[in-house]
Amino acid sequence: EAVEGAKRLAAFAAVDKHVGLKDKIIGIGSGSTVPYVVDRIVAQGKEANKERIFLPTGFQSKELIIKAGLTLGDVDQFPQLDVTIDGADEVDNDLHAIKGGGACQLREKVLAEAATTWVIVADYRKNSKVLGTTWTQGIPIEVVPFAYATVLSSLARMGSLSKLPNGKPGLALRMGVKKAGPVVSDNGNFIIDAPFGEDWMRKPAELLKTIKLITGVVEVGLFCNMARAAFFGNEDGTVTVRN
Ligand code: DER
């Protein structure tokens, strides 16, 4: 439907613009938009992909690469990438992004930072002005299990909202749906979702730094000053590109 078409539009436009023949080491993000990125790369043909190595940002991403018949690589061997393409939960005017809806933000940020070019692909729902406007469930934060309770109390002291504007629970450990107990990341850690008010969300780089310094925090789902460009598929079949 409209959202899936928009994801596909964004993914195709981003690959066409940022995955050229000279790009050999390619990072593949996580989520429901990146499968279209892989489709478009496969469509460039066997010749174009023969020498390329694809690095995953998690279990789902790894399976995508394998199923597409692309060559899987390990970041241990390829710690520098030409380009990484990934989704986002929300993107603001300055191309800062909330990520971690799929609890993959640690490996995503490693491959985003290690790439010469990092590009966001998303549907129109993610194209925002101020973070927290459309993605209201909070900043996804990966924490070591030992420290989840102490991190929760630090976040509460920072002003993380205990209730969302709609009255639903705010600051909390992310619990499994078809799994008893908390969600466990690909790295064996827990995820905390921490919503903040607009005062904090208007300064995402500062919020990122403050949260990152809490002992026990592994990685924060705020990607600031990282994106080269963001591609948003629109309902009317157009693509909005923001650089
Ligand atoms: O969890 C993540 O960071 C993913 O990239 C996610 O934010 C993208 O979600 P979507 O492409 O399924 O909307």
Provide an overview of this structure.
This protein has 243 residues and is α/β, with parallel strands linked by helices. Helices cover 30% and strands 22% of the residues. The protein contains eight helices and 13 strands. A six-stranded mixed beta sheet has the order 2-1-3-6-12-13, with helices on both faces. A four-stranded antiparallel beta sheet has the order 8-9-7-10. A three-stranded antiparallel beta sheet has the order 4-5-11, covered by helices on one side. β4 and β5 (97-98) form a beta hairpin. α1 (2-18) packs across α2 (34-42). It is globular, with a radius of gyration of 18 Å. It starts with a helix and ends with a strand. The mean pLDDT is 97. The chain binds D-4-phosphoerythronic acid (DER). GO terms for molecular function: ribose-5-phosphate isomerase activity. It catalyses: aldehydo-D-ribose 5-phosphate = D-ribulose 5-phosphate. It is an enzyme of class 5 (isomerase). One of its GO terms (biological process) is D-ribose metabolic process. One of its GO terms (cellular component) is cytoplasm.
